[in-house]
Amino acid sequence: MGKDAHTLFGDSAVSMKLLYLLPLVGLLTLGACSSPPKTATAPTNLKPEAARKRAQRDFAAGRPKVYSAGGYAIFEPGITERQRALVADLPRDGSLAGCTNPKVRYSISFATAYNQEIVSLLKGRHAH
Description:
Layout: H1 5-9, H2 12-32, H3 48-60, E1 66-70, H4 84-87, E2 92-97, H5 104-127
Parallel strand pairs: 1-2
Helix pairs in contact: 3-5
């Protein structure tokens, strides 16, 4: 019950090995939570109005996509389970996602507005 550090870790060589492992464990922890690479098209204006305008421009240009967002839990906001088939073939953009994104709350609002506008535009196209 009264074991000291020397008894637990053996000799100082083992203790030194553990000290060398600590930075590696820290780097692995940071790496596990790294954001996906940012694309050149990552939006800077994260207001929902800007998202809807961008969606309309992308749709008109024939380049609609689906934004994912979130911190640790990355998802595609604004798209319901029933709408997934409608957007299944669209490219995904993860530039707003990642736990290191300091503006994650605003990114989720942007992605929600963008994705909902894309769904609305796609539904309108399929109605004709």
